[in-house]
Amino acid sequence: MKHEWRKKEKELYIPKQKTALVSIPEHKFFMIKGQGNPNEAQFSENIGVLYSLAYAVRMMPKKGFTPEGYFEYTVYPLEGIWDLTEEGKKLDTLNKDELLYMIMIRQPDFVTEEVVERASETVRKNKPNPLLDEVTFGTIEDGLSVQMLHLGSYDDEPQSFAKMNKFLEDNQLERTSLTHREIYLSDFRKVEAAKLKTVLRYRVKKKG
């Protein structure tokens, strides 16, 4: 049976519009770092190279190679970890040109360095992209985290973060980093801003 993350991993990817405490295990990712306004072309180009690799992995059995442990699955959604440059942190308002990000697409557990190399070779052959050399493969474990579903424009996210911060206060929790993770359940290129669905998440720990 095909593994569909929307059905099999609801706790991680389909939260409610209510803050919740979760524990996120270690996952594998294709990742690429960048800086600047996500509305600019560079951000979309970075997304493109990640998806080209993700689909190269998923389609391997149809191309004559089946990785050990392979199973049918739906490609995971785009995710991003967001921060600000030191200059951006000094400003009273958000300057999107000062954003730092690492966007990524999770990979199934069967993906190994060998599988990554094969995927890279496939993309280089069929759809050469200079950004391939900037993509890394590795694991991230968020561990104890607070998350909720944000519905609407990315510019309105502070409203949801305020609710998450209130949850921290009420439950004797504190953030371990000023960075936060976003998981994009909607394609911002195709869905109007008011209907965008985004998982907001950041790492936390118990106070004291």
TrEMBL record:
Pfam families (UniProt xref): GyrI-like
Top-level taxon of origin: Bacteria
Ranges where the GyrI-like small molecule binding domain occurs: 21-200
Alphabetical list of Gene3D superfamilies matching this protein: Regulatory factor, effector binding domain (3.20.80.10)
InterPro entries: GyrI-like, GyrI-like_CCH_Lin2189-like, Reg_factor_effector_dom_sf
Protein name as annotated: GyrI-like small molecule binding domain-containing protein
